[in-house]
Amino acid sequence: MSAAPRYMVTGSLILLPCPIAADTVNAVLPPQVVELARGLDYFLVENAKSARAFLKSVGHPTPLRELQIVEIGHEPDASSITGWLAPLQAGRNGALLSEAGCPAVADPGATLVAAAHRLGLRVRPLVGPSSLLLALMASGGNGQRFRFHGYLPVPGDERARRLQALERDARGGESQLFIETPYRSRAMFEAILAACAPDTRLSLAMELTAPDEYVRTLSIAEWRSAETPPLERRPAVFSLLR
């Protein structure tokens, strides 16, 4: 008889998504995901405060002070990962939770997932909202070929060169997605209008899954004459499209 996979005698690292807009747990998370979250007591989280708010919103039956919530931060310390995963090696299930959306996708967690695989732990991704995929779905761009670039350079000249390089790739048929911090969203929008050609399409997605969700795709020429979008201090996903 062949040996069972190592993960069958360990706990699981559960990749637990959370809402990207306030007060939307029941609208964006399947009941099975909520129920599973309510049954866990060990959490590796990007931010402890937001994690406690999420666990409260799903109605976790255990008092929050009795849960083990380990803050891994925005850049998890590589030397701490083995210790964080030790309870899973001993058979306990644990969840990886980012501040918003899906862990390890444009958020911390990939290094923990990689370590879990090396240790023979089972990794379980659960269904939940991803701002990147939602923005791509709603953009009208190519969903067969796309690339996410994270944050672009801040200095003006360097940013303009990068935007023009992404524009060339978009014209080749590959959708180009990137994000910006909320306080620089308007500056990024203006930089795109200045750097890109009139017939390039720009899709702008904000407050996805929220009541005031905003998604619009126009050519650069159309954006230049359109009403300015409500960008002030709002996180946004930008997509350059053919």
- Biggest sheet strand line-up: 3-2-4-1-5
Structural class: alpha/beta
Beta-strand content estimate: 15-25%
Assign the CATH class of the largest domain: Alpha Beta
What is the CA-based Rg, rounded? Answer: 20 Å
Q: Between the first and last Cα atoms, what is the distance in angstroms? A: 55 Å
CATH topology of the largest domain: Cobalt-precorrin-4 Transmethylase, domain 1
- Approximate helicity band: 25-40%
Low-confidence stretches: 1-8
Query: Average pLDDT, to the nearest integer?
Result: 94
CATH second-level architecture of the largest domain = 3-Layer(aba) Sandwich
Order of helix and strand elements from N to C terminus: EHHEHEHEHEHEHEHEEHE
Number of distinct beta strands: 10
Give the tally of structural domains: 2
Shape: elongated
Features:
Methyltransferase, Cobalt-precorrin-4 Transmethylase, Domain 2; alpha/beta; 10 strands; five-stranded parallel sheet; disordered N terminus; 242 residues; Cobalt-precorrin-4 Transmethylase, domain 1; five-stranded mixed sheet
Short description:
The protein is an alpha/beta fold and 242 residues long. It is built from 9 helices and 10 strands.
What does this structure look like?
By secondary structure, the protein is of the alpha/beta class. It has two domains: 120 residues, 3-Layer(aba) Sandwich (Cobalt-precorrin-4 Transmethylase, domain 1), CATH 3.40.1010.10; 111 residues, 2-Layer Sandwich (Methyltransferase, Cobalt-precorrin-4 Transmethylase, Domain 2). 34% of the residues lie in helices and 21% in strands. The strands form two sheets. It has a five-stranded parallel sheet, sandwiched between helices. A five-stranded mixed sheet has the order 6-7-10-8-9, with helices on both faces. A hairpin with a 7-residue loop joins β8 and β9. α7 crosses α8.
